[in-house]
# Entry
Amino acid sequence: MSIVSLKSSRIRSINDMPIDPSGDYILYWMTSSRRFHYNAGMDRAVELSLSLNKPVLVIECMSIRHDWANERILTFSVQGMLENIKIFDENNVTYLPWVETHKDSGSRLLAKLSSHACSVIVDEYPTYLPRTIMEKASKICKVNTEAADSNGILPMAWAGKEHMTAYSFRKHVQRSMADALLNLPMKNSMEGVSVNIRYDRQEMMSLFRAVEIEFTPLEWLWRVGEGGKISQQAMAPLDIDHEVKSVMKMKGGRIEALKRMEIFLEMNLNRYSTDRNNTENPAVSTLSPWFHFGHISTIEVVVELFKRSNWTYDMTCFEDMGKGTRSGWWGLSESEESFLDQIITWRELGFNFAHYRRDHKSIDSIPNWAKKSLQEHSKDERKPYTFDDIENARTDDEVWNAAQRELLRTGLIHNYMRMVWGKKILEWAPDPNTAADWMIQINDRWALDGRDPNSYTGIFWVLGRHDRAWGPERPVFGKVRYMTTESARRKLKLKNYISRWSENAPLPREIQRL
Ligand SMILES: Cc1cc2nc3c(=O)[nH]c(=O)nc-3n(C[C@H](O)[C@H](O)[C@H](O)COP(=O)(O)OP(=O)(O)OC[C@H]3O[C@@H](n4cnc5c(N)ncnc54)[C@H](O)[C@@H]3O)c2cc1C
# Structure
């Protein structure tokens, strides 16, 4: 038995198993789009539920068996879960947050719960743990299993191949935009649904008892999400990285994301094209961690921007369509267009590349001209910094140290400084391969938005991916784009930035640790 999805471009079957109409529920295994709104997985779960007349069970899981499991990541995701409990309940959908509180307690969880399901839906995500889970699900689940792509405005499947440049991807974006806007997930998949699709709580309790799965205690989740000592004590027994602490003001969940979206769209978007790189008062959304954990969708931000600008598709410049020009084709202001180029073209280029290229986390993925040029300069002299010097911000470059401390303390780096941060690691590491490895290790460990397709877009952009050759040829960099902290000093006013992130500076009040 198969039920064709109305939103088929975002849904694909990942095994050859049939739907089991005698199962107890439709299982939605939520691993990256950790939200109710604008979620293709929710759309599909509701669609199957109504066709089969079976309830929906949504499980949001958090493993502690991944490479970078730490307090920062866990607190942020649990804060999102606590809000999701309320949001799903208000929308009449049965939702259960589940955190692996000791290693291996999650083993076979999916196998056990999918064996009682009619059909399984899992998030489609092109990298890191959610990708591994999706691939494992295709083998573990013995019923029809589908992957749902809620990652961005364009379904990843539409590109058909990886794009090497933003220019070529932008052409694809322009050609596909009209169809993409008709294929967005719904803001609320339950809109207009009058039948009860909740999975009965008593049945769920007895099922969990029968398959020997323990619920994650709500009280423990609450303590983790609370922050401060309470949170640290709750996480203390877990086998995770306790050095990477949570950060106040970086509160996971939809409420904080909506607040930041509101401030950005109302107060900062109009300065985006001029003040994005301003280190004092940058006109940016700061939403990347919430996008990364799926607490809010970029689709929601783009739709809100369209609404507030009264934008309709007939405002696009049809002559420019498909030519790959960066601005002028939306028929919006320079700032709005420049933001849309980042949140759609640049962000989704990263998803596109990771989706089609298994080697997206490897130096093999950089273009040949960059490989050749970096190789030709591999013996050039470098500073003898160790990984420890770099990770602990112990270099002679105070601008760079400031950027690294910003990352250690807040989980983010200002966008322009992030480019300089990467370029200096390339300059200092013993060779380009080690530079890539060090950037990945530091970014994935400390950045709240790390482990994302755009982590690897940014890191490999430093090494020439999605870029062109530049002259004059320089030591170490060869023809790869050169950037220095001196040029950043000339371009940006960095005095306050450096003192804000100096070694002994107290943490700014707004980001004190939880
Ligand atoms: C070395 C290096 C590492 C990076 N690591 C990450 C990472 O781990 N996670 C991550 O999300 N981004 C990463 N980036 C890209 C970029 O720096 C961040 O996306 C951006 O700074 C996030 O801030 P914001 O949310 O305020 O962005 P805004 O300017 O408000 O933009 C909105 C959204 O558009 C997307 N976006 C913006 N700029 C870029 C860009 N240059 N490339 C791709 N997408 C972009 C992001 O999703 C961002 O949240 C990295 C860049 C570099 C050079």
